[in-house]
């Protein structure tokens, strides 16, 4: 399994543009086999009593304030752990593996033996149950290619997961990738799906509430159409300004639906309760509610948003000032310009009808 895994990672590193893997993996098993090799004279060593003996440039063989190390001191009787005759095809037996693996993981790398595994592989091997000679879980470390943009981080995470899913299917075991930035960019794997679901739920809730309040399917459908157009226009502004779709911008988009309702529902309600033909009712709705929507909603929100322009934090300038300024302008144009025209052409019928009065009876003669 280890050889197959490292081989596949090595192959993936040959195509770094698609795999985002920069170099072959560091295998603790390969370094362990080198460490116990009889040719590595200063690595795997033992005292005459069988306990671990460190390299000559480490305590107790040598201390920083001493002179030449290991020449006549406590480590003069150290010998290598194995001879070639002690190994089977230069590979340890189960008993030898079980005995020497903790030594390797505790061995400090130094000039005499750079293959010590304490620094690089201390947490790479799960030793629970290793007495049976079977490692239940381990890791192999490699490096991603340099990533700078959000898209590169997301593509690197997606490529790592695809690679591990293929290896898992081949080896019939669970293999998963991990890096520090994965926990931050995992949300972007399904950000579009999450955004569409949340926007659909918000639009559906607004439609139901408008239907209950106005009791008009026609009017609720027109309001829903205008809200969808406002959201699409805001997403277009995001693309123009280079605002990325992330958790903050998705929340702003969902909130914009609730704010955009204020630009539409008052005009639609005034249109429904007015009398006359569609054009006359659209004019009446603008005359009665247009000023209130402009002064009470547009101007107040515009003043509150403009303050964010002077924020020192880029997240406030980009995700709050720019997006909410776009919301106010687009909502104003849709609510006071586009919606009255749409109502004058396809608006619902009025709730009230004019009843002509009956002519008065002639006065009776005396």
Automatic annotation (TrEMBL):
Keywords: Membrane, Transmembrane, Transmembrane helix. The chain crosses the membrane at residues 191-214, 221-243, 249-272, 284-313, 319-346. GO terms for molecular function: sterol binding. One of its GO terms (biological process) is sterol transport. The keyword Magnesium does not apply. GO terms for cellular component: membrane. This is SSD domain-containing protein. It comes from Arachis hypogaea (Peanut).
